[in-house]
Amino acid sequence: MGLEPLFQAWSYFRRRKFRQCSDLCSQLLERPPSEQEQPESEYTAFQAAWSLKTRALTEMVYVDEIDMDQEGIAEMMLDENAIAQVARPGTSLKLPGTSQGAGPSPAVRPVTQSGRPITGFVRPSTQSGRPGTMEQAIKTPRTALTARPITSASGRYVRLGTASMLTNPDGPFINLSRLNLAKYAQKPKLAKALFEYIFHHENDVKNALDLAALATEHAQFKDWWWKVQIGKCYYRLGLYREAEKQFKSALKQQDMVDTILYLAKVYLRLDQPVTALNLFKQGLDRFPGEVTLICGIARIYEEMNNISSAAEYYKDVLKQDNTHVEAIACIGSNHFYSDQPEIALRFYRRLLQMGVYNCQLFNNLGLCCFYAQQYDMTLSSFERALFLAENEEETADVWYNLGHVAVGIGDLNLAYQCFKLTLVNNNNYAEAYNNLAVLEMRKGHIEQARALLQTASSLAPHMYEPHFNFAVLSEKVGDLQRSYTAAQKSEEAFPGHVDTQQLLKQLKQHFAML
Amino acid sequence: MPEGKAAFREVLPKQGQLSVEDAAAMVLCKPKVLPLKSVSLEKLEKLQRAALEAARPADGTPPPRP
Amino acid sequence: MSLFKARDWWSTILGEKEEFDQGCLCVADVDNSGSGQDKIIVGSYMGYLRIFNPHPVKPGDGLQAEDLLLEVQLREPILQVEVGKFVSGTEGLHLAVLHFRKLCVYAVSGTLGNVEHGNQYQIKLMYEHNLQRTACNMTYGPFGGVKGRDFICIQSMDGMLMLFEQESYAFGRFLPGFLLPGPLTYSARTDSFITVSSCRQVESYKYQVLAFATDADERQETEQQKLSSGKRLVVDWVLNIGEQALDICVVSFNQAVSSVFVLGERNFFCLKDNGQIRFMKKLDYSPSCFIPYCSVKEGTINTLVGNHSKMLNVYQDVTLKWATQLPHIPVSVKVANLQDLKGVIVTLSDSGHLQCSYLGTDPSLFQAPRVESREINYEEFDAEMKELQKIIKEATKTQDILPKSEKHRDLIVTAEVSPDLDAESKAIDSEVKAEAVPSVTVKVTIQTRVTAQKPNLAVCVQAPLAVTCDQFVFDDLEPDSSETVVLSVFLKGNFCPSELEGICVVSYDTPTELNPEGIPKVAQCNFRLPLRLICVPAQASKAANHKLTIDTNKSPISFLTIFPDFVDPSEDDQANVLGFQFLTGSKTTLLASKTSQCMNMHVDALLPGPVSCVGQFVN
Asked: Where is this region: Disordered (chain A) (predicted)?
């Protein structure tokens, strides 16, 4: 007693058992059309199975396009879309925030390439910042992962249309070059599934756009969904103004949360955060309490380094959904760097209670416990973090933080070993090089310290610590010229650093006397 | 030395402090709170890993280094 | 592992390797017991029909014999079970069971025994309909406004709605633009059927429109199919939601206004009766099932949404009120008033795990897996630490990841470029079209303080330059020994190189205490080749195709200093014009201005080679 195959496939699809669904559909597609079916009728079981299989393959690799945003170097460097060269403070994402509600300085909180402090939460599209020079651009990580530069194991790999390897090992299911897109564009019940396949599974934006353009025309421009899809294609192709038009037009026809999110993404790419904020706020009028919109506002504020407003909106998110991982993680991180580790600990504990169970969380718990002076939990949290680390970069991060704990308890030998272990796991860990240099200095190994600082500052020119330390070291040994150059770099990275200013002043006095 | 009642009298302590030096101390880089990953990012990473696995030749040798 | 786990009140596993999906679960007082208490009815794809009346002695109990009222093997897969007033002449509830080609309506009744386990339940088939088309799902309700009766509408896999007025078949209509079946429901308030089509639209069809559309009984349906552009159903309203839907539910509780709830694949919608969006919520998970179940606050509706992360979320409109962990992914969720407990959440997984839960705040008993950690014995630790520190200290003397300063290099390689060109050129197979291609000797010396195993020297120069021999392999070197080799460099390709640098790299293994087989190490050095290797002095010429001007911030150094091998020292020290003839044929002239701080370079062809070579020297 078996189930009707198409029904079974349909049931598998509902339950997200896509592999079984796809296999069953393949079997159905191999069958010759049965006698019962009328060739002239609109409906055929063959089309149904084809459509279901298409959708199953797409769902296997589907990632919400709203979250996807990987800039290539060209887009970052040759950005024609920047409106104002010199934007007023608080109106541009390229100029990290001014003092209005700005959060902890780089003296307390690590910064990323862009000069923005690291956040508590990372998504595929977390802005990695605009590098100033081509060299920096090449070094800038173009995924949001903490410090890792792009490698072959990055998002691009899957997006290069190799999804078939995962979903359909026998080869691509649909041969795009043989498709008559015009024919499909006239059948919305097939075209929509086909579009998603071409866009998400094959990553073939050009063909997807062709199909969408034909389809929207066939729908006499009355179908908002096709407009949104065209907008998505334009976005991927870098035609942001055109994308904006499509999304706006779609929004006029039908209010939808997704459309608002896509349109806001366009504005953010055009570096108009204030427009995006207004859009979100209008969206909240229409869909009050919609978490994704509130969260969008909070993210924009955080990118503009307006931490107090960001915190406020994240708290609003929690009022709507107190299991929202991003809000909890960001608020926790902000509290930690605002010297409130006990409060941060509460937030991370909540994540633990919710069932989040990974290396990053236990690392953060360990840090919070230590700085909140709950020493009993500290080491076991870090132990678990090491146990859960999935790759060497994560292990390196944990050892790095353990090094800080060691410094905190005064065990400099342990700190030294921890930072060394950090380097063993990740040879490009600039912070570890810097901290090892500080420890070597304490032991009086000046040459070692110098070499380490040079490594650190070349790996991470945006960090002020290696430059500052190099300046101090050089000044000590009397190499004033080098000290001055390094101090200048430190000032560039962190203009507000008082000790750098003092050092520069001292050096200038020296030079004046010469 | 300023005279008069309005002037402050210098007080140079004779014992204790010998010299004061304001030496700049080196700074450590700060501890890192690690960002948590979103669902989309985790799915993307899972797909990447699966893609790399699938790209491996059947006999299990690792893919050629670039 | 959630903040709160759904507390297990009663649960059981149904059968073995049976399969279930959304329609398989129903809760209702199917045996008309009069107490208003619900029973749980479950049908599986294997054809088993089971009815439960759970009453656990204490929460967490499993299945007791008395809980299972009935278990019948109907010989066909059960797609859906519903309870309603399906039999004419009575307002009692009956059980409708949908199979692929059959609809059966049963009466469920129980005869009470003297003791509880004497109760007997049986089902009696009241009527059945054979279906001409493969069924997918069904809905029921008082179609056409009838009172006290429920009719049934079945959707087939190929898009036909078949309407049954209890014991008789009424009519069938094809849904226009159909491809794959979507969820189907009936709204009594508007007397319409609502479904979500493959065009990703919510569509509402009035019953009256269905009923009075072209008569299409089963014999004529093939005609109907052919007239695809003809008598199509006219839809009442349409809402384009842009995605497929898992389920639709119509609610009209007393306080809240009647609404249509749609659970899409990525969003959750609440629509008004005319199809406009009242509110919607974007979901950041993959939902699996839902049920709007009541309203506690005026004007709002509570909904339970299950998802594929095994969570059950409770929403009040769009605000998350509660989140709880389930032991499985629910394919169906219902709220039941069972014998001992009202408001029980009943969930069914697709493998047959049936659970009745309540929401509670007892902390979860989640135990994180034990990390390998040993008992803390401080004395042992200290001793081990000391031992390890000693080993580390020893090891870092000879091998460390931190850079060592130059003084402590174990193996040094140096290259000495002969100041004169080779008397007899060692150039081989040069493509340069010149009479003589010069070469220069480079002497490479390797000095080692430690044992160097299998040292391998590679000398690299950039094309078009070439070396007479670029790889040298030596025997193992003893500590404090050295080796020397000579080789020559010449211009091989017929174009100018962009730089005159070469690099020597020695790779070797050196054994250490921890690694007696040897760890690999590398030493390298650079060397610079003379300009004479690729060009000769020539007549300066002012006529040239291209002119480059290099501005300097200091007065130019005399050519004697920069190009000692090109300028005759006996010439006037103020020589400020110099000509170069490259072996490849191009000519360059350098002029240093006496008055302004700039230098002019005249080239006859703007090739990068000559410019950069000469430029390097000027640098």
From this structure: 95-136
CA distances from C80 to C76, C99, C198 (A): 12, 7, 21
- CA proximity to C76, closest of A5, A1, A9: A1
How many domains does chain A contain in total?
2
Is C208 within 8 Å of C171 (Cβ atoms)? no
Question: Is the CB of residue C154 less than 8 Å from the CB of residue C164?
Answer: yes
Given a contact cutoff of 8 angstroms between Cβ atoms, the answer to whether C368 and C9 are in contact is no
Residues 366-395 of C with CB under 8 A from A: 366, 368, 371-373, 389, 392
What number is the ipTM of this complex? 0.85
Rounded distance between C-alpha atoms, residue A299 and residue A313, angstroms: 9
User: Which residue in the block uniquely carries the two structure tokens 């990553």?
Assistant: A203
Over residues A70-100, the pLDDT tens digits come to: 555 555 556 655 544 556 666 766 655 444 4
- Asked whether residue A342 is assigned to any structural domain, the reply reads no
Closest approach of B64 to chain A, Cα-based (Å) = 12
Contacts of C366 in chain A (CB under 8 A): 355
Interchain CB distance below 8 Å, B52 and A397: no
Domain span at residue A464?
366-513
Contact C46 A447 (CB under 8 A): no
Our measurement of the distance from residue A357's CA atom to the centroid of its chain's CA atoms, rounded to an integer in Å, reads: 20
Q: How far is CA C23 from CA A403, C5, C19, C378, in A?
A: 57, 25, 12, 62
Task: Please say whether the beta carbons of C10 and C355 come within 8 A.
Answer: yes
Span of A8-22, A279-293, C128-142, C604-618 with lowest mean pLDDT: C604-618
User: Where do we find the tokens 């300046």?
Assistant: A471
**Has residue A488 been placed in a domain?**
yes
Task: Give me the domains of chain C, ranges plus CATH numbers.
Answer: 4-217+229-363 (2.130.10.10), 408-532 (2.60.40.10), 534-618 (3.30.310)
- DSSP for A418-449, written as a single string: HHHHHHHH-TT-HHHHHHHHHHHHHHT-HHHH
A474: domain CATH number is 1.25.40.10
Calculate how close chain A gets to B13, using CA atoms only, in Å. 27
How far is C505 from C497, CA to CA, in rounded Å?
A: 21
Query: What pLDDT was estimated at residue C394?
Result: 81
Residues of chain A found within 8 Å of residue B52, distances taken between Cβ atoms: 153, 157
How far CA A285 is from CA of A203, A420, B37, C279, in Å, comes to 35, 53, 30, 11
| Nearest chain A Cα distance for residue C3, angstroms | 4
Query: Least CB-CB distance to A401: which of B32, B47, B55?
Result: B32
- Least confident among A67-76, A223-232, A364-373, C21-30: A67-76
Q: Do C249 and C291 meet the contact criterion of CB atoms below 8 Å apart?
A: yes
Chunked into runs of 10 residues, chain C (619 residues) has average pLDDT values of: 69 91 94 88 95 84 82 94 94 94 93 73 93 94 93 94 93 90 94 94 94 60 43 86 95 74 95 92 94 82 93 91 90 91 91 89 55 69 86 74 60 87 81 81 88 88 86 88 89 83 89 78 88 80 77 69 69 67 78 72 67 62
Of A120, A123, A356, the CB nearest to B33: A120
Does residue A336 form part of some domain? no
Q: What is the pLDDT of residue A418?
A: 94
Q: What type of residue is C599?
A: M
pLDDT of amino acid C142: 94
Q: What is the reported pTM?
A: 0.77
Residue with tokens 């210098």: B10
Find the mean pLDDT for residues B1-21: 67
Min Cα separation A32/chain B (Å): 32
Whether residue A436 lies inside any domain: the answer is yes
What does the H/E/C string look like for A96-122? CCCCCCECCCCCCCCECCCCCECCCEE
